[in-house]
Write a structure and sequence with these properties.
single chain, alpha+beta, OB fold (Dihydrolipoamide Acetyltransferase, E2P), 2 domains, 5-stranded mixed β-barrel, 4 helices, 5 strands, rod-shaped
Length: 154
């Protein structure tokens, strides 16, 4: 009876590891089910049909209670991300009043992305059309594409 109990316990442990630690259904779940099936098979071959049925029903009940315990406990709350994302996408350049021809001065080096301060005092991320642009260089908006402001030296 000892090897049967050991196989069932090993199977439960492997299923527990599968449920808590390893995402998806991997080799540990297959080995856990196989170990429990081997324990049930040994119960049928060594002790007869009645004992085999009792062992099989016990394995099913143990597995169901283990799964219910794991799903109902606070284990999943500890393993999941419980934060809200409050960030919003940046305003479109048109909403900021930036259009083709708007003048600005770079505040950081554009290589090719960097920051520029526009005439109205707003600072935005811009991209250089012409390669590297040093800080303090006057630029103007060459074109707008999908929310990205492309500038060239003026």
């Amino acid at each position: 009876m000892g090897p049967i109990i050991i196989l069932i316990i090993v199977g439960l442990i492997l299923l527990l590891v599968e449920l808590l630690l390893i995402p998806g259904f991997a080799i540990t779940g297959i080995l856990g089910i196989g170990s429990m099936a081997a324990g049930c098979y040994m119960g049928f071959t060594r002790f007869g049909n009645l004992a085999g049925i009792i062992i099989t029903v016990t394995c099913i009940l143990l597995t169901a209670s283990l799964v219910a315990l794991v799903l109902r406990s606070s284990t999943w709350k500890k393993a999941t991300l419980d934060t809200n994302i409050d960030a919003k996408a940046g305003e479109q350049p048109e909403e900021k009043g930036i259009k083709v021809g708007s003048k600005a001065t770079t505040t950081t080096r554009l290589c090719p992305m960097g920051m520029a301060r526009f005439e109205d005092g707003k600072v935005s991320e811009v991209s250089s059309v012409e390669g590297l642009v040093n800080p303090g260089t006057p630029v103007e908006v060459a074109y707008l594409d999908d929310g990205i402001i492309y500038v060239k030296k003026s």
